[in-house]
Specification:
This protein has 209 residues and is an alpha+beta fold. Helices cover 53% and strands 11% of the residues. The protein contains nine helices and five strands; from the N terminus they run αββαβαααααββαα. The chain has a five-stranded mixed beta sheet, sandwiched between helices. It is globular, with a radius of gyration of 17 Å.
Length: 209
């Protein structure tokens, strides 16, 4: 956990660093190539994975940039959010994400969770507290609690943990392009630059290999 917190500090400091200029991505500085490509959910599309944690301030800051960007992606790009689960409250919030996703209400509640944690002082650290919160957002509380420990939710959590290992994630937010390239805000040089790097790597994947 200490390493993860230190990673967040370093990311914050690096926001003052150099920015990425169009067509000048440098491997090893702006992104890294994974040693082993990770299979994507939809092989016919270029996949963009955002590894995040609801409690991460930098993930919260990135929302204002990545939400409109992801909503406007072309048809050949598949955007996927994957919660990072490094134990403790990270796993609780990951379980929250997948419970909402299983109920097909994640998009309805997603922004409210960030707002509750970062602006309203709510911890959302126990099932009862979480269930009461999502009920406030219009989610059926009883159904939510029944789904919380379902096989579907547990399976997705295990898959997310394996993906984090395969992506070699040590902190969040991190973006992975098509199971091949990983970078974070610090490597990109800023919030807007994060989606700029993503766009350039998407273009790279469109080129004949």
């Amino acid at each position: 956990m200490r390493n993860l917190l230190m990673s967040a500090v370093l990311v914050g400091a690096s926001l003052l660093g150099s920015t990425v200029f169009a067509q000048e991505l440098v491997e090893g500085r702006n992104y890294v190539t994974l040693s082993s490509p990770v299979p994507t959910a939809q092989p016919e599309k270029i996949e963009v994975v955002e590894m995040f944690w609801y409690g991460c301030p930098h993930c919260y800051q990135l929302e204002a940039t990545i939400n409109p960007w992801s909503a406007d992606l072309p048809e050949d790009v598949n955007f996927v959010r994957v919660p990072a689960m490094f134990g403790g409250i990270w796993n609780v919030h990951g379980q929250l994400f997948y419970t909402l996703e299983t109920l097909k209400v994640e998009s309805k509640v997603h922004n409210s969770i960030f707002d509750a944690l970062h602006n309203s002082g709510r911890k959302l650290s126990s099932l009862e507290e979480i269930a009461s919160f999502v009920a406030e957002q219009g989610v059926d509380k009883e159904l939510f609690m029944k789904t919380w420990n379902s096989f579907s939710v547990k399976s997705q959590m295990e898959k997310a943990k394996k993906l984090a290992l395969a992506y070699q994630i040590s902190g969040v937010p991190a973006l992975i392009i098509n199971g091949k390239y990983r970078f974070d805000i610090g490597m990109a040089g800023g919030l807007q630059e994060t989606v700029d790097v993503a766009d350039l790597l998407i273009q790279k994947e469109r080129q004949p290999q």
